[in-house]
Amino acid sequence: MSNKCRVCDAETKFVISYGKMPLANAFLEPSQYDKEYFFELAVSHCPSCKMLQLIDQPKPELMFHEEYAFFSGTSKAMAVHFEDKANSHIQEFIKSPSDAFVIELGSNDGIMLKHFAKNKIKHLGIEPSRNVAEVARQNGVDTIVEFFGKETAQKVLNTHGKADIISASNVMCHIPDLRSVGQGVDLLLKDDGVFEFEDPYLGAMIEKTSYDQIYDEHVYIFSVTSVDNAFAPYGLEVFHVTPLETHGGSMRYHLCRKGAHPIRQSVIDQKAKEKSLGLDTYETYEKFAQSCEKNKKELVELLQNLKSEGKRVVGYAATSKSTTILNYCGIGSDLIECIYDTTPIKQNKFTPGMHIPVKSFDDFYNNAPDYAVLFAWNHAKEIFAKEESYTQSGKNWITFCPDVKVA
Ligand code: TMP
Ligand code: ZN
């Protein structure tokens, strides 16, 4: 494990280790248990560029591949979110649709780019997972199967020319080599172009102790300050930010070439908030580590008590985030009988590391448990509305973010 900052090479400071961890989305069958991949999930903070980062990370090829389990298009709320995003880009940053060119990094199944395709705006998705890229192509979205970096940028520059917008959603925090991204964007972006991306926000994670945002795919948890520092060497600066509700608290960053767009008040205000939250000081992360330990202790105690009372406890949604919670807290099928999930390729498999069975929701409705742990806490509103009859029949929810409680 290296303690050198992935972004600026300065010496980082260790924050916390969540221990031996499998890949968050590596749902598996018992015959695969003996070959299961583990790494140490630990986090450090860079006192120089302020980036919170994973110390160790599995190779991207292990995580984003032919069988990548996440299809953006399967969530209705997400479909609306990305349609709004595409429309706001078209209105704000596309001056002439006939000569515009829009790139999306990690374009998944084309959930956002299809709105540019529909408006006949030249676009290109750059997506490393072949299965989701194939779906995008079927939706009429031009897509190449590549990881983004300097080399891919050079290729795209040769074939397509420079871009008005380079966009990415829940992708930038996946890419360990931000230097190569910075160089690629510098090559590909028009002089007044906009480089925009959104990811889970560090401020929200610290405020809510939502440490389950930390897993193999999230190599960075960004703040406005750290993003500004990370891309400054490539002549880029943040000129506008928009806080978002998605993924339990995200931030949308808009960057441009230095001076190309006026810096908006949103950036000044958010940086001031980050200072008041202490995101630039190590003590904040020491406190965060203590809060994680406290949260773990309380959740395990609650589940053990319910078990000793003979209650039936299940999990609601086998999210990527739940892999961190389950493995860090050492929660297996002794404490959580099974996890219900809507994703067919997860069903009838077992969760990474702790091997809790994943089932379809049929059984949840036919044979309701006493308690359900809400792993998809970021969708709480939608889920509580959908599951009103479960709640009305006197059954219980367990939430752990920001605090462990029976809801
Ligand atoms: P993610 O947090 O890793 O994106 O995964 C979300 C998972 O939660 C996905 O496997 C589907 C599942 N899920 C449900 O099963 N029911 C729900 O109501 C919601 C919102 C998600
Ligand atoms: Zn650094």
Bound molecules: thymidine-5'-phosphate, zinc ion
| Cα-atom radius of gyration | 21 Å
**Total of domains:** 2
Low-pLDDT regions: none
Order of neighbouring strands in the sheet with most strands: 6-5-4-7-8-11-10
What is the mean pLDDT? 95
Query: In CATH's first tier, which class of the largest domain applies?
Result: Alpha Beta
Estimate the helix proportion, in percent: 25-40%
Stated plainly, the CATH topology of the largest domain is called Rossmann fold
The structure class reads alpha/beta
Any idea what the shape is? globular
Strand content: 15-25%
Please tally the β strands and state the result: 17
What's the CATH superfamily of the largest domain, by name?
A: Vaccinia Virus protein VP39
CATH architecture classification of the largest domain: 3-Layer(aba) Sandwich
